[in-house]
């Protein structure tokens, strides 16, 4: 299995996991965020598939996951809707966070080994997207661990690259 095939497997597994999590929650906001993350994994899969086949890269409009998540969380806060989640559910989200972290590290490591600058840039772009997913998942974990406190204290600052999301600085 080459690096592209491995990356495709990672992304396919991630998509399946997010869709599975989405199917297990009744919370409409969480379901939307998890479905969005699954779709992000599909986009990554397509990129790696094209790279593996040495085809032209697809031009896809990038989804601003932070902007979409911010909208969902603001709606939850407006509704003052706090849900109850089991420890098992929290563990599922923590597992997804670890997976995103592993993907991020893998893509950064592989990018450093690539000689082709375009491929290196693609790996780094996807690594950055995985890092954004990590920040989003950290906030999801905080939300499902302490929903009422999170909704009362959430700071929805500027959520674009290099700014602050949910009180955390991103670069």
UniProtKB/TrEMBL annotation:
<dbReference type="InterPro" id="IPR009078">
    <property type="entry name" value="Ferritin-like_SF"/>
</dbReference>
<dbReference type="InterPro" id="IPR003251">
    <property type="entry name" value="Rr_diiron-bd_dom"/>
</dbReference>
<protein>
    <recommendedName>
        <fullName>Rubrerythrin diiron-binding domain-containing protein</fullName>
    </recommendedName>
</protein>
<dbReference type="Pfam" id="PF02915">
    <property type="entry name" value="Rubrerythrin"/>
</dbReference>
<dbReference type="InterPro" id="IPR012347">
    <property type="entry name" value="Ferritin-like"/>
</dbReference>
<dbReference type="GO" id="GO:0016491">
    <property type="term" value="F:oxidoreductase activity"/>
</dbReference>
<dbReference type="GO" id="GO:0046872">
    <property type="term" value="F:metal ion binding"/>
</dbReference>
<feature type="domain" description="Rubrerythrin diiron-binding">
    <location>
        <begin position="5"/>
        <end position="140"/>
    </location>
</feature>
């Amino acid at each position: 299995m080459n690096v592209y095939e491995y990356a495709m497997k990672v992304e396919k597994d991630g998509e399946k996991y997010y869709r599975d999590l989405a199917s297990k929650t009744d919370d409409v906001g969480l379901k939307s965020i998890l479905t969005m993350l699954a779709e992000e994994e599909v986009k990554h899969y397509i990129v790696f598939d094209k790279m593996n086949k040495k085809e032209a890269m697809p031009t896809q409009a990038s989804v601003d996951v932070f902007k979409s998540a911010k909208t969902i969380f603001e709606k939850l806060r407006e509704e003052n809707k706090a849900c109850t989640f089991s420890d098992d559910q929290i563990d599922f989200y923590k597992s997804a966070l670890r997976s995103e972290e592993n993907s991020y590290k893998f893509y950064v490591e592989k990018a450093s080994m690539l000689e082709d600058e375009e491929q290196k840039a693609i790996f780094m772009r996807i690594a950055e997207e995985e890092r954004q997913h990590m920040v989003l998942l950290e906030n999801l974990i905080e939300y499902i661990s302490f929903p009422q406190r999170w909704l009362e204290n959430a700071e929805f600052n500027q959520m674009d690259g290099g700014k602050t999301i949910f009180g955390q600085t991103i670069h």
